[in-house]
Amino acid sequence: MRTTRRRLLAAATLALAGCTGRASADRFRARVEERVEIRALSETTDAWVIEYLTTATTSEAVRREARDIALAYAATVPDGDHRLDATAIADADDARTASWIAEGSWARAHAAGNLSTEAYLDRIAARTDDFDRLSGRSPVTPDSG
Predict the structure, then answer these.
(1) Rounded to whole angstroms, what are the CA distances from 97 to 74, 91, 101, 104, 142?
(2) What is the pLDDT averaged over residues 40-60?
(3) What φ, ψ does residue 83 adopt, rounded to 5°?
(4) pLDDT reported for residue 100
(5) What is each CA distance from 106 to 19, 37, 101, 134, in whole angstroms?
(6) Are the CB atoms for 126 and 100 separated by under 8 Å?
(7) 60-119 per-position pLDDT tens digit
(8) Distance CA 54, CA 133 (A)
(9) Rounded CA gap, 57 and 86, in Å?
């Protein structure tokens, strides 16, 4: 069987496609590690699932961490149906502090300039009440009231 230029290009394209997703995940990991400590990061065909350690003691601090991670996702999101499932873990108690999701379509719209940072983050916040339930000194204590 003769190897044609078309076959070589097709093989190279398939190989590159496989590497692109991995490269995106590696870039995402590097960006996030600049901001928080990653406890676990797993990849599936349609999602990255991240657990990160937080020392945040206020809702605002948890939101800032989520903002940094969401913006890193927008800068590295793969093509196709994809999402980021994120969970902040209070490192003192090993307890879940907040969980949130960023849809790939939102991240791509933000990266393309079609969705403002505020609107992108509002969509993420709308999918969880964890950011608003946190209070004061303990990242796992609900607001009283």
Answers:
(1) 23, 10, 14, 23, 10
(2) 90
(3) -150, 165
(4) 94
(5) 23, 24, 11, 25
(6) no
(7) 888 999 999 999 999 999 999 999 999 999 866 677 778 999 999 999 999 999 999 999
(8) 16
(9) 18
Alpha helices, H only, 59-115 = 59-76, 104-111
Domain ranges of the chain: 5-133
Q: What is the pLDDT of residue 13?
A: 37
| Residue 141 and residue 96 in contact, taking contact as beta carbons nearer than 8 Å | no
The two structure tokens encoding residue 95: 């307890």
| Closest listed residue to residue 97, CA positions, set 88, 106, 110 | 88
The pLDDT, as a whole number, for residue 90 is: 84
CA dihedral sign of residues 50, 55, 61, 64:
negative
- Location of structure tokens 């070589």: 8
User: Which pTM value belongs to this model?
Assistant: 0.75
pLDDT of 122 reads 94
C-beta atoms surrounding 125 within 10 Å:
17
User: In the structure encoding, which two tokens stand for residue 72, read together?
Assistant: 């890193």
Q: Round to whole Å and give the CA distance between 130 and 104.
A: 21
Would you call 80 helix, strand, or coil by DSSP? Answer: coil
Q: Say how far apart CA 36 and CA 50 lie, in whole Å.
A: 11
